[in-house]
UniProtKB/TrEMBL annotation:
Residues 51-71 are annotated as: Disordered. It comes from Setaria italica (Foxtail millet). This is Lipase-like protein. Pfam families: DUF620 (PF04788). It comes from the Eukaryota.
Length: 460
């Protein structure tokens, strides 16, 4: 990152991404930062680049290394976790290693940085609560959202948040694979879960940036208010297809104002118990224009629906159900193939942070279902994620728009949500020339990374 261009707080964001709290990062002087940079160069060796996940001073050098020591919370745990991942013994056999890489790639592609179904701007006021000449489903939804904002801290306090920061940890695992009538379950899911950490920055309006490191791989994505981009080790940096949309992970109890704005056009469709708690259900559907903007070529997004479950007792959002369906037409005139992705997220452990109710833990269950062609050719993959929040801060001084500048090497052409296809599907749907060249170059550069066995949707 060009710190001269982006200023001091771009460097601040980088340091927080490495595990430092905002307060600790702000206290670092320019001379101390220079000492850390020198320690990094020494640790990495002259003329050698450090591994992507080993950024910062040598964690085994003791408190005197890097000028200031290792913080017991945050940064220290991040480094220890990455050391354990780096030193973990490789699975027996090349096939096991390739399967693990495929699973990890699928987990990061689907659950790493998915987006919300529609564009939303939290700076716009919510619709005025109205009963006259308004359908009961709409007026009920507006009332539920007013109660949600009040329970989360109040409209006035939430609107005063200029930016926000959160750091947490995740565990991801693929639990079940089904092909035709054969089901293979991961009987050691708890032991094989991939641990990781993430850092999320947000700035009003509509800007965000996230870094997620899991199992030795790192995905980062961001939005500068005009463009959503994503970087993965297997595709590099690329822009998302369609209009900008919020990060779904932020809706999971970290950004109440954006979550309320997301459901501003929703309808109340009934009630249901979630974990023994009575909840109102709000339903939001992406309109056809939005779906067309996200579709490309032979890949068409047919629907994208989001359900929000709001507790009748507390007024807070406790469950999100996200489902979207994509159809991929065959270039040979055969039957189309359909991909359905469903993400169920349970949002838990709300605690006040500077007067705002923030969810500090949760879990997601994901189902990736492929069907079409022959009746018994369907595949189903089930994945799970658990996360917890360790640090949250609002209105971090000095954070600027420069911190959300897209990478300089971002590709000029957009990439649709269906570009990351398994090896067998590429020839059927036909990639655009630029995408085909990009995929070929990546596969040639890293022969050890194999294509996953399922489609990775809605992760741009």
């Amino acid at each position: 990152m060009d710190t001269k261009k982006q200023g001091f707080f771009s460097a601040l964001r980088e340091e927080v991404a490495r595990g430092l709290s905002p307060a600790r990062a702000r206290r670092r002087s320019a001379s101390n930062a220079a000492e850390v940079a020198a320690a990094l160069r020494v640790a990495g060796g002259a003329g050698e680049a450090l591994a992507p996940l080993m950024e910062g001073p040598d964690p085994e050098a003791g408190p005197g290394a890097g000028g200031g020591g290792v913080r017991r919370e945050g940064w220290g745990r991040w480094v220890r976790g990455q050391l354990q991942l780096a030193r973990a013994p490789a699975p027996a056999g090349a096939d096991a290693g390739a399967a693990r890489r495929n699973d990890l790639r699928l987990l990061l592609g689907v659950m790493g940085a998915p987006l919300a179904p529609v564009h939303v701007c939290a700076a716009e006021p919510l619709p005025h609560l109205s009963i006259k000449d308004t359908p009961i489903e709409t007026s009920s939804a507006q009332y539920i959202l007013q109660q949600y904002l009040a329970a989360s801290g109040g409209q006035r306090l939430l609107s005063s948040i200029r930016n926000a920061y959160a750091m947490g940890k995740v565990r991801m695992v693929a639990t079940e694979f089904e092909t035709g009538g054969r089901v293979v379950r991961n009987r050691m899911a708890a032991q094989r879960a991939e641990p990781g950490r993430f850092v999320l920055w947000q700035m009003a309006p509509e800007m965000w940036y996230i870094e997620l490191a899991v199992g030795g791989s790192k995905v980062h994505a961001g939005c500068n208010g005009k463009l959503v981009w994503r970087h993965t080790p297997w595709l590099g940096a690329h822009a998302a297809k369609g209009p900008v949309r919020p990060l779904r992970r932020a809706l999971q109890g970290l950004d109440p104002l954006t979550a309320a704005s997301m459901f501003a056009g929703a309808r109340c469709i009934g009630e249901r118990k979630v974990n023994g708690e009575d909840c109102f259900i709000l339903k939001l559907c992406a309109d056809p224009e939005m779906l067309r903007a996200r579709s490309e070529g032979l890949a068409e997004i047919i629907r994208h629906v989001l359900f929000g479950y709001f507790s009748q007792k507390t007024g807070l959002l406790v469950h999100l159900e996200d489902s979207h369906l994509t159809r991929i037409q065959s270039t040979t005139g055969g039957d189309a193939v359909y991909w359905e992705t469903t993400i169920n997220s349970f949002i838990e452990d709300y605690r006040p942070v500077e007067g705002i109710m923030i969810a500090h833990s949760g879990r997601s269950a994901v189902t990736l279902f492929r069907f079409g062609e022959a009746a018994m050719s369907h595949t189903k993959t089930r994945m799970e994620e658990a996360w917890s929040i360790e640090e949250v801060a609002f209105n971090v001084p000095g954070l600027s728009m420069d911190c959300f500048i897209p990478p300089t090497d971002i590709k000029s052409g957009s990439v649709s949500e269906t570009v990351e296809l398994p090896q067998g599907e590429k020839s059927k749907v036909g990639l655009l020339p630029c995408h085909r060249a990009k995929v070929a170059a990546l596969e040639k550069a890293d022969d050890n990374v194999a294509w996953s066995g399922a489609l990775q949707l809605d992760c741009k």
